[in-house]
Amino acid sequence: MRVYHQILLFLGCLLLACSCVSHRVRDVPQAMASLKDGQQVWIYYTEEGCFGSAKMKLTIKRQGDNFTARLFDLLKSPSHPLKTATLPLGATDAFQKFGREFGRKFPGYCTTYGTYKIEAPYLEVSKQDGSCGWNGFQQLCADFFGGSVDSGL
């Protein structure tokens, strides 16, 4: 009987540990705003298809009263950021908009697919977008670093 209780306790702890990471798209909009000092969000974006290919990483790290955003081109220079920006704590609106749109379903009629993977403390979500119409990663980068969505990364 004692072994049975130990097994139940072990399984309960295992379930509790596994449930700490959210895989829910609805948790994405608040991922940046809920960061504590020193924590960060990673967005990996890969684009493959007729219109070219890209493999990018955007990191957003909270540092005191600011966020530091860094954009990396993982194909050309994976360890050196292409762009860096310091954002105030109130600059989470663009990320929240990205997160809300990330949860929408887009039709997959395009030959170029964007694959997103978002990681943050207690969050890991992936999505594939084949619509050729959303450009969520490009818009978020334009909001953080300036420029336009069509100007490239």
Percent of residues in beta strands: 25-35%
Oligomer: single chain
Largest sheet, in brief, is: 6 strands, antiparallel
Based on secondary structure, the structural category is alpha+beta
Order of helices and strands: HEEEEHEEH
Average residue pLDDT: 81
Uncertain runs with pLDDT below 50, 5 residues or more? Answer: 4-21
User: In whole angstroms, how far apart are the ends?
Assistant: 62 Å
Overall description:
The chain has 153 residues and is an alpha+beta fold. It has one domain (21-145). Helix content is 24%, strand content 31%. The protein is built from 3 helices and 6 strands. The protein has helices spanning 2-18, 93-102, 136-145; strands at residues 40-48, 54-63, 66-73, 83-88, 113-120, 123-129. It has a 6-stranded antiparallel beta sheet with strand order 4-3-2-1-5-6, covered by helices on one side. Strand 5 (113-120) and strand 6 form a beta hairpin. It is globular and about 40 Å long. The chain starts with a helix and ends in an 8-residue tail after the last helix. Residues 4-21 have low confidence and may be disordered. Keywords: Signal. Residues 1-24 form the signal peptide.
Summarize the structure.
Helix content is 24%, strand content 31%. It has 153 residues and is of the alpha+beta class.
Question: What key attributes describe this structure?
Answer:
153 residues; single chain
